[in-house]
Task: structure prediction
Amino acid sequence: MKSKINIYFIEFAINAILRQKYKSLFIAVVFVLLTFLLTSVFFITNSIKYELNSTLDSLPEILIQKTKAQRHDDINVAEVDKILAIEGVSDANARVWGYYYFENIGVYFSIVGVERFENQYKNSLSKIVDTYELDDAKNPSMVIGSGVQKSMQKSYYKEYFNFIKSDGTLKKVSIAGVFDADTNLESNDMIVMSKETAREIFHMPESSATDIVVKVANPNEVATVLAKLKLLYPESRIITKNDLKVSYQNIFNYKSGLFLALFVISLFTFFIIIYDKVSGLSSEEKREVGILKALGWRVDDILVEKFYESFLISFFSYSIGVGLAMAFVYIFQAPLLRDIFIGYSELKPSFELPFVLDVQTLFLVFFLSVPIYIAATLIPSWRIATLDADEVMR
Amino acid sequence: MIELKNITKLYALSKVDEVRALDDVSLTVKEGEVVVLKGASGSGKSTILSLIAALSKPTSGEVVVDGKKVSKLSDNFASIFRRDSIGFIFQKYNLIPSLSVRENILLPLVPLNPHAKDAQKKLSEVMEIFHITHKADTLVKNLSGGEQQRVAIARANVNNPKIILADEPTANLDEKLSLSFIEILRELKSLNKTIIIATHDPLFFNLDFVTREIAMHNGTLQL
Ligand SMILES: Nc1ncnc2c1ncn2[C@@H]1O[C@H](COP(=O)(O)OP(=O)(O)OP(=O)(O)O)[C@@H](O)[C@H]1O
Ligand SMILES: [Mg+2]
Result:
């Protein structure tokens, strides 16, 4: 046995593909479409999953919201000290934040208040506090996400913005900068300003906060701390990071599940189409197999040639499909498809699908398409090649 | 040496109906002989050729070529046997129309994965002998009938086989081209090839270099 690859087979295979123009083109188009769709959806879901997880990871372990008649109510800042006294709690912060409805465009932004000499509960915020001086009472300023910047620019606010307070008066806040935060998903629609300015816009007294976030040093202690907090605040809503994670992922998995079902259907259709195309080898192809056998090709030789033929066309189509999917998802940000996965109401507004080099997806799609196609073409060729070749004499 | 021993070949037409294509045929062809098999359509000429080439198996009896029982070869070894020993010229040429002359002639060598130089040498040789060099890169579908036949002959000879089998080689040729084909056969005979031609073309009758003419009728030899 020679170990050298027989390039004559490869040449013959390429020739055979080009020879059957329409059949090859049809198969390539179907194949490209399928791998494109499969890969796109996997890329999008992975990208969003990655985004979600990094967003959720940056959340505090425990969140305490005071409720009144089952609705959210402001909490007293003084509670922070009581919480800090609980064993296992490493830090607690009173947050001032809320949504601001930007009428001109019809979208919500979230405003987050920070205070210079406080521990920040998120890295991104610490960076902002270190870089910008937001708490100048005479000239209040803010740092905004890129999505916010875009919206404000559309309304010709480039250096400052006039917030409408709940009493109807205006609050002018200048734009100190645009930030890049830990992740896109949370930063895009965010506005960071001093707590004082935020309270003024939300009409909130100095003694109140929106909620309190609690850090627990040891993740094993979360349950114990949670139990103590529940005793302390039986009326409040206490949410752990895990709860959030689970509920986000549920929404997400539900959608990907729907897609999975769609896939099984499209995959199935694909193989029916392909099987139909290849299993009915044309009489011309049958004759060709007969000629080759009469000329001394063994069944193996014919199968090797057919293998190259199907590998070349399927791998070529796979590569094109994957390439298109990459461009579609990461360059064009997956128009249409992404909206299916990111409902406006469930997550935040526009964000970029981050590029996650996802080798697993590439392998998965490869194994779902290329080898199956090759098998689907080899089996009928094998059946014909093993028949008596004297047909060519007739 | 080619020996057919008591060959019977049946083709099933349906579950109950069958054709007796060959009926107890025995024949010996010595090395270097040129044999013409003649007879009406359906008399079994092609069937004999396909059995010698191990393209099909006899229902009973034995085909022996150079001491090798080719009627007992597995499919794989039958292919290798053809590759090494048989050059086949078909009535319909059986070329691949969308390949060039060069690519068609190369086909029998492909499974051998020859060095480019060796392949080139063999190709040039046969293309020269059969006067088709000037069309080497032309697609076969753009050739005339006579040129296609020369390509088929070149292809049958590229692996330098000892046995040439020709099935109605002049059926699609005019008289002039048929006569030049006969001259080619004469050359092949001078190369000491064993040649069997199945034909009902009278041009092949009473040729000086043909060692034997055998008439066939309904699956039997008229000796
Ligand atoms: N694959 C097959 N299946 C069924 N019948 C066959 C098959 N091959 C040959 N036959 C039959 O066997 C008989 C002999 O056929 P064969 O092709 O050997 O004749 P032939 O002498 O070559 O005829 P022709 O001059 O028309 O080529 C014919 O009756 C033919 O119909
Ligand atoms: Mg015949």
